[in-house]
Design brief:
The protein contains 5 helices and no strands.
């Protein structure tokens, strides 16, 4: 799980690791024992956030005109396809 510093508490990290995932979370600056961070993997988070930002440029997605989840997901797929084709 790749997350920001807000998910740094020991309890949160323990829950993530208990579920079998790897926690890629930078330590807060005031943490006494900072954890190691895979910086290469953490940089992937930026790509994902930029992609979601592009997705929110589609008005039907950010204002959720579709009432049914099936229709909304279909439009998200369509918007994702248009983003990738650019």
């Amino acid at each position: 799980m790749i997350a920001d510093k807000g998910y740094d508490p020991n309890g949160m990290v323990a829950m993530i690791e208990q579920r079998g995932a790897i926690a890629v979370i930078p330590s807060r600056s005031n943490r006494k024992q900072p954890r190691e961070l895979d910086t290469h993997l953490y940089k992937e988070r930026h790509l994902i956030e930029c992609w979601f930002n592009k997705l929110k440029h589609f008005r039907r997605v950010f204002s959720r005109f579709e009432k049914k989840a099936k229709n909304f997901l279909s439009f998200v797929y369509l918007a994702a396809l248009l983003i990738e084709l650019r």
